[in-house]
Structures are given as C-alpha cells and as structure tokens.
C-alpha cells in the first residue's frame, strides 16, 4: 500500500494505492474518487454494538467503508471540512481521536470507543473518544493545520483544538485563569494535558468559526 | 492479559524507532521483561522500578527506570495486582501506596462530580426561576384587556358540563355575594361575571379576565352564603393575581418571556385555548392556591365577612367529601386542604376582630333551588 497526502494543508486529501489482496478501511462518505478495479463494501465496524458506540459516543459514522482489490487501484479520501490530514503508523500502540477526526486506516488497526471522562464532557470535548489500536497506518484530519507535539510534562490546550493524543497522556479540565478572567478573556475552559506521549492539535477550532459566522448573521 | 504473567502494553525508549512501541511484558523473577513487535527486548529490574498511575483512562500503570530512560506501561487491570505479587513482593509497598492513591483520587473525583452536578442543577434552577420572574413581571405589565380576550376565547372553547342556570333565586343570591366582594377586588377595572351551571360538581373556577363558573353542586354543599363568598373570593383572586396568564406563560417557557417583553401576545392566546380545551387552564400550583387564599381572606375581611368561612368550607369538603357527590372535582383541583385551612385561620386571627355584616339571604331557599334550579317551589309568605 502506498499513500500520499496531497494539497496540504488547507484542502488535504489522501490518495491510497492498493495492490492485489490489500485493503483499506475509511470513514463513510470520505471517498472522493476510486478506481473501478476496487470493490467498496459498507459494514459496521466491529459489529452492531461497537458500531453503535462509535456512532453514539465516538462521533463517527455507524458504517465504515472497506476497500479491497484483486488487482490494483487507487482511492482518494477527503474530509468534509477544510484542513490538514496526517498519518501515524501504529506498532501495537494506540491513539485517541476526537469525534469526527478519523479518516481511514489499514485493516490491522482496530477501532473502538474509549471513555474520556466527565471532565472532558464539561470541557465540550465529548464523553468518549475513538480509540485506534493495533498495527498499521492511520489517517486523521483536522480543521486548519495540524500541530504535532512530543510532550513530557504539561501543556494547556484551549478547548476545541485537541485532535488526537496517545492514551499515556491524562487530560483534565480547568479554567483558563480566575473566574473573571476565564469569562471575559474569551478563553473559558481549557484542557490540561499531562504525562508523556504525542499530542496532535489543530490550528483552528470549528466552534470558533461557527461563533464568528454566527455573530455576522 | 496474554497468558500467565504476560501483559500487552507499550514502552517509551530512545532505543526504539519513534521512541515508543507496543510491547508484550512478562513478570520475571527479578524484573519486568518487555519485547516489542520488532523483537527488541528490554528489562527493568523490580528494585529500580518506580510506579505511577495515570494516562487518559486514569488506570494506566507506568513503570519508570531510575532516569526514565525506559518506561513500560500497561492498562490491563490485572497488571498492578500482579506487580504486587511478583519478585517476592519487592514492589508490594509501592503497589499498596498506588492503590490507596487511586482510591483516594476516585473518591475525590466522585465528590467533584457530585458537587459539579449540584452546581449545574442549582444554576439551572436559578435560570428557570429567573425566566419565571421575567415572565411574571411581563404578565403584570400587560393590559387587563388581554386577560379578558384570553378568558373569552377560553370560555368559548370549554365544555361547561351542564346547562346555564337562570333561576332568579340563585342568580340574585350570587349577585348579592359578588356585589359585596367586587369593590374589594385587588385589581380595579376587572369585569367579573359569574355563570351558574347546573351540575353536581362541587367546584368553581375562574378564567383570566374574571369569567367565573360556579356549579350548583357547590351551592348545595355550602352551609352559608359566607362560605360561597369565600370560594368566589378565592376564584376572583386567581383572576386579579393573573394566575391563568402566568400558567399559560409558563407553558410557553422562555419563548413566552421573550415574546411578552416584545409585546407579542398571539402565542399566549393560542396556548390559552389549547390549555382550556384540556381543562388545564384552571389548574393552579400550590403557590398560586395559597396566594389566592391569602387574597380571599383580605377581601372577605374588607367586605365585612368572616374570612374563616372559606376554611369552614374546606372542612366540609374534607369531612364529607366522600358523601358529597362531585366533591372530588374540588378536591382534585384544590389540594392540601388541611394546611390551607390552618393558613387561612392564622391569617384571619392576625387581622383581629372585624365588624361583620352577614348576608341576609334565605340560604335554605337557595339550597333548595340549587337542588332543582327553576323547579323548586317556595312557600308563599
């Protein structure tokens, strides 16, 4: 399998070239184009309960698309909003993805739902996360550019900017400053990320755009 | 957990590509042995192991080497207890300490969760009360004409449950009672009109604007005109305190408050008709019932009538409710009679002695006519 992320960072898309016998799993609706030599099959990821959990708590689709071929072919995948796409190779490791970030993965990657905690819910980051684990390549996207950071300590992230993180990191929600500062600075709640591991941030927050557009309507 | 003392986890080390890898860990005699998928092997002696708990789930166990050049981690719930037993209990003290810390952290987290929930509930209640206050104030600012319009439409859409009574004895008796009460109504300019309906229901209700419906069943059950005056005063108070409109506005919620502030009453009228058709417009909450009782006591005293007559009527309902046909109607729409009686008597006492001017009505005659409106025959004087 060869893959290339193109048109970065604003309108990134992934072109994946599959050889005979190879497969690819992608988020429903992510396919922009595909070779006629590829077969696409929609299925529930990991059975009904797992698919339901992915849909209800992971912010992803109930179905995923599985691409396979007996010869070779390519598929182009995109996300529904403008922004960058990146990939990581899992080697028996895991990655937690914010709702809506998942784009595609190799068949060796298992998709599940991990509990994010009430603090995450209070911080508008959702109750659960999509947890990708296993072996193989994983693609995910963001709104705006993607900032990758190797963390060994603590980092404060504004809510809505977190895209993905390794499960070795712990998250807690707090106020950006004092109560007065938090309300009037426009920062509100922040996410405090602690520990060792990789974290992926997006340079723009979709909620920020929505708020800005709304103020002009 | 793999098999025996093997666990699936991962490790951080500068020696592996990407500085991290998934790994299978085995608890040996002297330390933890980890092997990555690429076959790289690592070993961390128990004696050098520093344990820590954390990660996204809060349940991940980290085993650090002295300078953190190697960190093994595992989320398997069986990993921590197994570490406590491994290596002849070398890590037992750290495991015990970590377990206690985890328990403490969970308790604190739960406490914070409960407190957070409490704060959310209190804020929600505060916002609700705030909007209720805005709605109530907006209602007070509306002209009485709105009440009359709503009451008229509601009256037209309601089933009266019996024919209207024109028996002059009953009409004159009720008119006399109302003429004593009207000058003392809390809101000036409200046109009170009583429609007597021939039905065994022991009940009365008042629609916004002062449209009162009084059933003959209540006239039969009452032992004196003062008791009927108490009930009518109570119903008039619902209108003067604008409970009906507030009831409608509460059904509309936040939208009502905003619309009313903007002067839009169309939604209010539409909901009034809807509620009236379901018999919900005349159902009031405990707070509104008490407020109407208090206002009725004031009106009765001002009209030279004993305010305790209303409490006496409640006693009849309470004692004879089961025997009086249709009494269930009053009891269902006017709950907590015992407490309300006490409240009425206490407030009457506080008013002190009043100069009473009882009605000079022949109540026996009224009761007789209430049994058979338009048919009862009176003895010639």
Automatic annotation (TrEMBL), chain A:
Signal peptide: none
PANTHER family in the cross-refs: ALTERED INHERITANCE OF MITOCHONDRIA PROTEIN 24, MITOCHONDRIAL, TRYPTOPHAN RNA-BINDING ATTENUATOR PROTEIN-LIKE PROTEIN
Entry-linked NCBIfam families: TIGR00266 family protein
Protein name: TIGR00266 family protein
TrEMBL record, chain B:
Database matches in InterPro entries: Mito/Outer_Membr_Metalloprot (IPR051156), Peptidase_M48 (IPR001915)
Cofactor note: Binds 1 zinc ion per subunit.
Keywords of the record: Hydrolase, Membrane, Metal-binding, Metalloprotease, Protease, Transmembrane, Transmembrane helix, Zinc
Ribonucleoprotein among keywords: no
GO terms assigned for molecular function: metal ion binding; metalloendopeptidase activity
Start and end residues of each stretch annotated as Disordered: 362-381
Domain Peptidase M48 intervals: 173-347
Transmembrane segments: 110-128
Cofactor section: Zn(2+)
GO biological process, one term: proteolysis involved in protein catabolic process
UniProt cross-references to Pfam families, sorted A to Z: Peptidase_M48 (PF01435)
CC per GO annotation: membrane
Superkingdom of this protein's organism: Bacteria
Record flagged with keyword Zinc: yes
Protein family according to the UniProt entry: Belongs to the peptidase M48 family.
PANTHER family hit by this protein: METALLOENDOPEPTIDASE OMA1, METALLOENDOPEPTIDASE OMA1, MITOCHONDRIAL
Name of the protein: Peptidase M48
């Amino acid at each position: 399998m060869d893959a290339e992320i193109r048109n970065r960072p604003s309108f990134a898309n992934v072109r994946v070239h599959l050889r005979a016998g190879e497969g690819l799993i992608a988020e429903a609706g992510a396919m922009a184009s595909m070779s006629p030599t590829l077969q696409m099959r929609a299925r529930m990821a990991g059975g009904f309960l797992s698919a339901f959990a992915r849909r209800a708590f992971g912010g992803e689709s109930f179905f995923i698309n599985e691409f396979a071929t007996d010869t070779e072919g390519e598929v182009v995948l995109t996300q529904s909003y403008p922004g960058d796409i990146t990939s990581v190779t899992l080697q028996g490791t895991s990655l937690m993805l914010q709702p809506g970030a998942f784009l595609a993965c190799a068949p060796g990657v298992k998709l599940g739902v991990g509990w994010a905690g009430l603090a995450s819910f209070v911080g508008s980051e959702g109750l659960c996360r999509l947890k990708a684990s296993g072996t193989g390549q994983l693609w995910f996207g963001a709104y705006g550019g993607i900032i990758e950071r190797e963390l060994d300590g603590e980092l404060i992230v504004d809510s809505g900017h977190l895209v993905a993180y390794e499960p070795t990191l712990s998250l807690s929600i707090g106020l950006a400053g004092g109560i007065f500062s938090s309300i009037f600075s426009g920062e509100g709640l922040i996410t405090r990320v602690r520990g060792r591991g990789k974290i992926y941030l997006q340079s723009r927050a979709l909620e920020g755009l929505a708020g800005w557009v709304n103020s002009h309507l | 957990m793999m098999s025996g003392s093997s666990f699936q986890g991962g490790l951080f080390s500068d020696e592996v590509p990407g500085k991290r890898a998934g790994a299978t860990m085995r608890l040996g005699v002297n330390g933890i042995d980890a092997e990555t998928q690429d076959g790289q092997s690592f070993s961390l002696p128990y004696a050098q192991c520093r344990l820590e708990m954390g990660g996204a789930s809060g349940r991940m166990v980290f085993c650090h080497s002295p300078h953190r050049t190697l960190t093994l981690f595992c989320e398997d719930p069986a990993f921590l207890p197994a570490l406590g037993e491994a290596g002849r209990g070398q890590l037992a003290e750290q495991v015990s300490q970590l377990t206690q810390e985890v328990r403490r952290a969970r308790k604190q987290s739960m406490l914070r969760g409960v407190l957070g929930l409490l704060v959310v509930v209190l804020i929600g209640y505060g916002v609700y009360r705030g909007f209720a206050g805005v709605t109530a104030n907006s209602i007070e600012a509306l002209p009485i004409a709105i009440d009359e319009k709503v009451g008229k439409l509601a009256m037209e859409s309601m089933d009266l449950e019996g024919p209207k009574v024109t028996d002059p004895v009953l009409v004159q008796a009720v008119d006399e009672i109302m003429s004593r009460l009207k000058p003392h109504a809390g809101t000036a300019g409200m046109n009170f009109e009583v429609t007597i309906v021939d039905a065994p229901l022991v009940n009365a209700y008042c629609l916004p604007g002062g449209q009162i419906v009084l059933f003959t069943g209540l006239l039969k059950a009452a032992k004196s005109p003062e008791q009927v005056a108490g009930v009518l005063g109570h119903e008039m108070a619902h209108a003067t305190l604008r409970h009906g409109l507030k009831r409608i506005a509460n059904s509309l919620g936040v939208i009502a408050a905003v619309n009313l502030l903007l002067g839009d009453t169309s939604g209010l009228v539409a909901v009034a008709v809807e509620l009236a058709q379901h018999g919900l417009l005349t159902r009031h909450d405990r707070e509104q019932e008490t407020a109407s009782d208090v206002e009725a006591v004031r009106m009765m005293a001002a009209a030279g009538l004993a305010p305790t007559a209303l409490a006496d009527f409640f006693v009849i309902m309470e004692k004879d409710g089961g025997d009086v046909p249709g009494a269930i109607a009053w009891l269902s729409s006017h709950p907590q009679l015992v407490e309300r009686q006490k409240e009425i008597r206490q407030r009457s006492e506080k008013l002190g002695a009043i100069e009473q001017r009882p009605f000079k009505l022949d109540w026996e005659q009224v009761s007789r006519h209430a049994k058979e409106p338009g048919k009862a025959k009176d003895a010639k004087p």
